[in-house]
From TrEMBL:
PROSITE patterns: KH_TYPE_1 (PS50084)
GO biological-process terms attached to the record: regulation of gene expression
Lineage, opening ranks: Eukaryota, Metazoa, Ecdysozoa, Arthropoda, Crustacea
InterPro entries: KH_dom (IPR004087), KH_dom_type_1 (IPR004088), KH_dom_type_1_sf (IPR036612)
Domain K Homology span(s) in chain numbering: 133-199, 205-273, 292-360
Domain of life of the organism encoding this protein: Eukaryota
Protein name: KH domain-containing protein
Repeat as UniProt keyword: yes
Alphabetically ordered keywords of this record: Repeat, RNA-binding
Organism field: Penaeus vannamei
Gene Ontology terms, MF aspect: RNA binding
Length: 391
């Protein structure tokens, strides 16, 4: 903001000054009379009366005339800040601003009388400080939400203006940004509250959002007998639809307030992603297990195959269940056939070793082998010295 260094004084006529100072009444109080002095521009009036009274009257009138002399101080004030300043700055001090809104100008002026010069300079400093600490900024509000920013009957804009003492300019084209002008602290507070109020309104608007999932994942999103869909609708207060005119390209949409709908969509997508991850992990595990599977034959003499099988096949059932393998028995009356064990290679080898051991040992028909997992130093506790307890 720029100021002119010296005030501009407009000199009124002598008669005007005397009228403003109420010279006639003052002359009566001092006991003197005023007579026109025609043709004298320096002293247009003569004072008639006692010398002391006349001198006192002249001093009084000179003080009144100098004090009532009008003073005008031009100054520059930004157009956006002008509506925020008061026209009457103090008693006898006025701020004159441009009246035409269609032709804005920064040219303003402080007007007062000479006697109020000191107070006018103080007000001038106050205005200068306000201009220095003022700013203009725009809230982060999309043009599509200007209606929420303005409010019904411009109630929201009026509320922000009155609360923070700022000017809010909403463009008519709805393409330019909203501009908030005023003191820096007030502008920041107004923008923050306006953005929060608009965001609250936007979150309450009813919308239809698509759930971006594959058509084959619709069953995961809905759940068995609609259990997942019911849970989402109850938790977020929204509706799930499998057909939508708004988003026909997606298999599922969520309808409800924007904030709740966004949370529901995120929850469904997270659930589908987690289920797909588990399915992929299971498929990978199955593929890995298939790679690790193998079929190993049980190498026993044909005459001992029956001992490996056990009565009614109870030994192979016991081994198959314990090691998680599949055991295929040889066909009868076919020479050279063997018992085949299929499963994870490690488990299949353990099962084959156990069947071969039972086929070659002298076991009772109803007995099977069960491995005893003990440390080497504990063998003597189980078997006894030199295997006496085992015997």
């Amino acid at each position: 903001m720029s100021y002119r260094p010296k005030p501009v004084v407009k000199e009124p006529s002598g008669q005007t000054l005397l009228k403003q100072a109420n010279a006639g009444k003052a002359a009566e109080n001092f006991g003197v009379k005023l007579r026109p002095h025609a043709g004298n521009l320096v002293a247009p009036f003569l004072v008639k009366g006692k010398q002391e009274a006349a001198q006192a009257f002249i001093q009084h009138m000179e003080a009144c005339i100098c004090g009532n002399r009008p003073l005008r101080m031009p100054l520059q004030i930004p157009v956006d800040l002008q509506p925020l300043l008061k026209t009457k700055q103090a008693l006898g001090i006025w701020l004159k601003m441009p009246l035409r809104e269609d032709d804005p100008s920064e040219s303003c002026a402080l007007i007062c009388k000479e006697k109020d010069r000191a107070l006018m300079l103080k007000k001038l400093a106050d205005i200068e400080g306000q201009v220095r600490s003022s700013e203009s900024a725009s809230p982060d509000i999309a043009p599509t939400h200007y209606g929420e920013a303005i409010g019904k009957g411009a109630a929201r804009i009026s509320y922000i203006r009155e609360k923070y003492g700022v000017r809010v300019n909403v463009p008519k084209d709805r393409e330019s940004p909203i501009v908030v002008s005023g003191l820096s602290a007030n502008v920041r507070g107004a923008i923050k509250e306006l953005e929060e109020l608009v965001q609250q309104d936007v979150l309450q608007q009813c919308v239809v959002l698509p759930v971006e999932i594959l058509p084959e994942d619709i069953g995961i999103a809905i759940g068995k007998s609609g259990c997942h869909a019911s849970k989402v609708q109850e938790e977020f207060g929204v509706k799930l639809r499998t057909h939508s005119r708004e988003h026909p390209e997606w298999p599922l949409v969520v309808e409800g307030p924007l904030g709740a709908a966004e949370k529901a969509v995120a929850s469904i997508q997270l659930q589908v992603a987690e289920r797909r991850r588990r399915n992929e992990e299971f498929a990978e595990e199955q593929r890995r297990r298939e790679e690790l599977k193998g079929t190993i034959p049980v190498c026993v003499e044909p005459g001992r195959i029956g001992k490996a099988i056990g009565k009614s096949g109870f030994r192979i059932r016991h081994v198959a269940q314990r090691h998680g393998v599949t055991i295929q028995l040889p066909e009868r009356n076919k020479p050279g056939v063997q018992i085949l064990v299929t499963g994870l290679k490690e488990n299949a080898r353990a099962a084959v070793a156990e069947l071969e051991l039972m086929a070659n040992l002298k076991l009772r028909p109803e007995h099977v082998l069960v491995p005893l997992h003990i440390r080497r130093e504990e063998h003597i506790l189980v078997l006894g010295p030199e295997g006496s307890m085992a015997a």
